[in-house]
Amino acid sequence: METKNIVTEYLRCTEGELSPQEQELVKAARKACDSAYAPYSRYQVGAAALLDDGRILTGSNQESPVFPSGLCAERVLLYQIKAACPDREILAVALAAKSAGKLVKNEVRPCGACAQVFADAAARQQRPLRLILSGTQGCTVLENAGALLPFAFEM
Q1: Which of these is catalytic: 74, 89, 107, 143?
Q2: Residue 96 near residue 129 (C-beta atoms within 8 A)
Q3: Does 153 map to a domain?
Q4: Is residue 9 annotated as a catalytic residue, yes or no?
């Protein structure tokens, strides 16, 4: 029997320490919160992706009274990109959230299902996908979104 460790490196920073392009991505994620349909949780999540052609696409969570038929912002965004831009690579994704109409203090983190879809997206494009988790008190940056789920499902 052998014991192994999983180590996840990440950056903690202020929004001002991000590159100008990443700051724009965070702003787009925050704006995307406003298109969320979250009458049940009242927790609006926005996601924004920077594609390799320079475009920024956004998504937001969409709830349904028939649980769990809603969809998280991350999956709305990643599935939209794969459907509409199948030949584009995703360079980075930023996440933001509002609760009761105000940006949250602590950075929003993807759920397990979204972590799996991030791992799938990175595997498909065969390159890491940078992830910026934002809150009003700072950001966490993962160089590879696959680090969210070290034991991601693979076929």
Answers
A1: 74
A2: no
A3: no
A4: no
